[in-house]
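Hello,

I think I submitted the MRU job twice by accident. Can you confirm which output corresponds to this input? Input:
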Amino acid sequence: MTAHETHSTPTSSATAANALEAIRYQRERGLQVLDQLLLPYQTTYEEVTTVEAGHAVIKQMKVRGAPAIAIVAALSLAVELRQKHAAGTFATAADVHAFIARSFDHLRTSRPTAVNLFRAADQLVQLSQHAAGRVDASAATVTEAYLAAAEQMLADDVADNRSIGKHGAAAVVRASAAASSPNVATVLTHCNTGSLATAGFGTALGVIRQLHADGWLAHAYCTETRPYNQGARLTAYELAHERIPSTLVCDSMVGALMHQGRVGAVVVGADRVAANGDSANKIGTYQLAVLAQHHGVPFFVAAPTTSVDLATADGTHITIEERPPAELREVRGATVLADGQLARTTDGAPQLQTVRVAADGVQVWNPSFDVTPAALIHGVITERGVVARDANGKINMHAIF
Ligand SMILES: CSC[C@@H](O)[C@@H](O)C(=O)COP(=O)(O)O
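Support: Only one job matched these inputs. Its output is below.
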């Protein structure tokens, strides 16, 4: 894995014409992943040429967000597979299938909560098994079948997100009107669910983007999203990049914001939606849903069907990833000089530093996700439509499959 391209992040006005891309992939040119640990200060793409490198960028959260994790896993395997096939590593179709199955066994260990990776692994291993079982199967045919299917995931995710945006924007406008809030939407979101978390456009942030494009968005609020600050570092960056009217609040300000009547709807993403609609998402989502319920604010989850796990009956069965204590005890950012400017290295890049913000030796609990019960969710917005909560407070995700 090597640094592919590095430059200081230009101002939003300079970049407004360019779409933010977490993942760059072309069969002939390989896979480059935007290092999100360096955002919003610096735009650096890393070349990912092996499964091991794919596993590392996911685990270190250089790439994150449920759909992006699955796609980077699948494409890192595609790049190594193609390279190995060209080098004549595989004698038979069965060899290729064994490599794919073994690689996914490893990739599955990177992060446990988002189901997208596990779905992609199941689908692609099954596809390669099927391809290897054909009478005319060879190492070349199985490799080609895998590459085509992994590449299709990129295109499908963008198309799904655009659909989610359309369904979600309509649902938010309807809910805002029903809640007799002003007929333009003021939406709060959490974590980062935009272009940076997906193959493009985004899920919950895609809904905000669509509302803005259709002229329905009055204002967006994004939470800071401690401890990893995906809201402050990434969502705020995307909102500024798209020139969407927006305000950053820290997680503990949401109650006051809702109490003042300044939030018309909440739209968040999901890492795994259970069959009954219980949804795992970034830590802090649950408390937003409780606050929304208290204030009569509609609360939506926006997620592609690749994030729906019908095999998991309810949220109690979802594995919640625990992250290292250092993520809570320490904060990483750019050094600010006395004049308010950022300190820069000799090549002009902002100087990043990590600082301790917690008392020495304090114990830390750092779950990366929590589960919001379906009873608090107004509806789950998918690319196939919105699965709404029924009169008994229940959501049935089977309804869209
Ligand atoms: C479209 S991304 C949906 C979720 O993956 C997102 O809300 C989230 O919780 C991301 O968590 P992260 O830990 O940054 O991978």
